[in-house]
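Bug report (template v2)

What were you trying to do?
Predict the complex of my protein with iron/sulfur cluster.

What happened?
Run completed; filing so the output is reviewed.

Input:
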Amino acid sequence: MREELYKWKYNMLAIKVADALNKKGHDSYIVKNSKEALEKIIKIIPEGSKVATGGSLTLTKIGLLDVLRNGNYEFLDRYSAKTNEEKEKIEREAFFADYYLCSANAITESGEIALLDGNGNRVAAVIFGPKNVILVTSINKIVKNLEEARERIRYISPMNTKRLNLNTPCVQTGYCVNCSSHQRICNYYTIIESGYRHPGRIKVILVLEELGL
Ligand code: SF4
């Protein structure tokens, strides 16, 4: 019963957010789980496309990287880079991909999309990179408003530094101390207010299960 009620609640919330995103000029889709998210992405991206991704636990979790590596795509695989220089080169090439995929850090109930980056490559690509952007975002990233978005990101960022094995103070404390570490991942906080200039360029896939942080 409890599970059913949460499913219902998540679905109602996703409908509200999808409607808000559509009204802001984005295209949005609601899918039940990782499997459906992957199927939707495969349906959207034509075979033969040049595809790039930003760092994302969600994309790994739904199995997208394996599909891109093994399918009929020209995949700009930043994870295949052996050096930082090589990785940066791939991240720059990503601007010329046909499709760019990553996740959002938070989406408000009014359809504002919040992203936080350490290097800025991901936010830059989402804002002014490939002609098509797909944000795969799980339901746990929906927040009431921008204040909650900021709070959520501040809460989860230490887990990301831990995951990435970085040497930041929050790895020791478990909470943010607003550090000045050169490995700080909280450098470029960006809000996408709307997509009216380029309707449909950003597609948001809302997944009704908890995936990324
Ligand atoms: S600002 Fe520094 S301490 Fe705070 S979460 Fe980001 S990396 Fe960690």
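What did the reviewer find?
Residues 157-158, 161, 168-170, 176-179, 181, 184-186 surround iron/sulfur cluster (CB under 6 Å). Residues 2-207 form a domain with the Rossmann fold fold (CATH 3.40.50.10420).
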